[in-house]
Amino acid sequence: MAPDTLSLRYFLVLAQELNFTRAAARIGIAQPALSARMRRLEAELGAALLIRDTRSVVLTTAGAALAESAPPALAALDRAWDTARKAAAGELGTLRIGYSLSAGAETAPALVDKLIHKGLEVGAVQMATPEISPAVADGRIDVGITRGEQPGRGVRRYLLRSMRVGVQLAEHHPLAEHPEVGIDDAAAYPLRLPDRAANPVIHDQLSALFRDARPNPRFHTPAVSFDLSQRDLRDGLTLAPAGETAVATQPAGLTWRPLRGAPTLTIHLVLPREQSPLHRRVRAIAKTLAHELHWLPD
């Protein structure tokens, strides 16, 4: 049976001092208590560790061997305890994060950077939005980041970011000269919406903005689901309803204007319903990040 670690640590102090009085003072206990602990340690080991006389303390062969081998063993034990405490506090682990394409422009990278800065290992992968909540629920990924409050069982959703809705348009578009664009004014031009299959929640939310607009809007879905060059907007007519994060990936020649009176779009953190300390720490870090970057209203 291994000795208790406290007695072993006391022995190492005594092995350095080779004097009970000095060792007891250094540890902060009475000398008789230190002597009693050393006797118990020797009894557990079944061998003498010390040769005592009235003037000095000398290590036996067993004592010298223990004094040499015990420090690395105690250091390894300390590391094990520290690892266990960090795991219990959610400070250790590898996170698998799934994020939607639109969240990958600005929000997901900022959160991943923050998590890595806090000492966590992170693997992030882009996923189709409708797949993210089910993947969190069944454990294929640990965390999801989605635009819009996506449906799904077995998960909890936390508002991570709220943003204005506007339109992307060419810099030479007639509406680009205005600081804000009216919904009816935007409806007078062709409106590009994302494919509904990619994100039904956001598609429906964006199209609903123009439900009562006059004239009736002309919606279309691009043949290429995600075109970095935004070629269809360069005709100087087509508008693309989008959140303000679109500015982060906007190519030259395009600009973004907020829609006057439009409700906000949201980005959500998706976690499993039953959460580990690691999940709870991710939520706390995300909350701090949202506050630091003013992602949510005060």
Q: Describe it for me?
A:
This protein has helices spanning 5-17, 20-27, 31-45, 61-88, 107-117, 129-137, 183-187, 200-208, 277-292, and strands at residues 50-52, 57-59, 94-99, 121-126, 143-147, 155-163, 165-170, 190-192, 218-220, 240-243, 254-258, 265-272. With 298 residues, the chain is an alpha/beta fold. The chain has 3 domains: 5-88, Arc Repressor Mutant, subunit A, CATH 1.10.10.10; 94-162 and 266-292, D-Maltodextrin-Binding Protein, domain 2, CATH 3.40.190.10; 165-263, Periplasmic binding protein-like II (D-Maltodextrin-Binding Protein, domain 2, 3-Layer(aba) Sandwich), CATH 3.40.190.10. A hairpin with a 4-residue loop joins strand 1 and strand 2 (57-59). The chain starts with a helix and ends in a 6-residue tail after the last helix. The model has no long low-confidence stretch (mean pLDDT 87).
Q: Examine the coordinates and then state which fold CATH places here, giving the name of the CATH topology of the largest domain.
A: D-Maltodextrin-Binding Protein, domain 2
> How many individual β-strands?
12
How many helical elements?
A: 9
Q: Domains counted in the coordinates: how many?
A: 3
The CATH architecture of the largest domain can be given as 3-Layer(aba) Sandwich
Physical arrangement of strands within the biggest beta sheet: 4-3-5-12-6
Question: Separation of termini?
Answer: 59 Å
